[in-house]
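--- STAGE predict ---
source: upstream dedup step, 1 unique chain passed
mode: sequence only
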Amino acid sequence: MSGESRPATLAELATSRLALGLIAFARSTTWRRSLAVGERLGDLAHALRIRRAVAERNLALAFPEKGAGDRAAILRDHYRELGRVCVEYARLAELAMSPPGEVLESLRGMEHVEAALAKGRGVVFVTGHVCNFELAGGWVARAWPLDFVYKRLTNPAMESWISARRRELGVGLIEIGAGVRAVFAALRANRCVAMLADQDARRHGVFVPFFGRLASTAVGPAAIALRSGAPLIPTFDRRLADGRHRVEIHPPLVIDDPGAPDAEGRLTALHTARLEERIRESPADWFWLHRRWKTPPP
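--- STAGE serialize ---
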């Protein structure tokens, strides 16, 4: 389901034209060469300090044990990964359909999804803004029917463009909020649903530990999994040293007494802990430019 679209403002049109120009430039070369272009774009964003103060504060909160130099190195690498992801958006479907081993090194943990779908209740994938999570979804969609639960961009021109790219990936689209009935319908049809749950959820979220601090976290993935009986399966993309990707599907998350009043919070805390483990393995992969701890706990 989707809400009403509004006309783009002049500023939004200018932004979208700039973005589309960069995308066209990225498509003018090979994928591997475009990664180097993306790295330079990341260096430029870092030099221009685009949301850099937010990222620096987040890294200080998450890694107080690391020195300033180590955190600065993580941030430089992170901007470069953002650049690589940006240029990959220019050819999402092409990369998702690439020959085995060319762009996707491996899709690991497929047995967890097969076992879950055999029970006929669908699957809820939960992930975060780690590497190219949408491209990872494209590879998952080649194996099983998949719907993205997404939030509409504020720029309608870019929203139209990215929605078209997602459809080219072969995924269904369910807009967050109003589309909750569509999510349950998809699970009843034994489809897979992918949800993000790593940004500040304001007062609508549940507060769970994240890097030693309570963070407001969307309860949707846990609530939907518990109410539908679908397993909640953490899944993450990983960028390898040679530029390729590895998609890692984890075993389903299990908690004691899933019918208890606090089950949604405990399951949310569990998948957030899995995300933290993944980030600690390679911190530059996660999106540090978001104010993750914006909402203070009560």
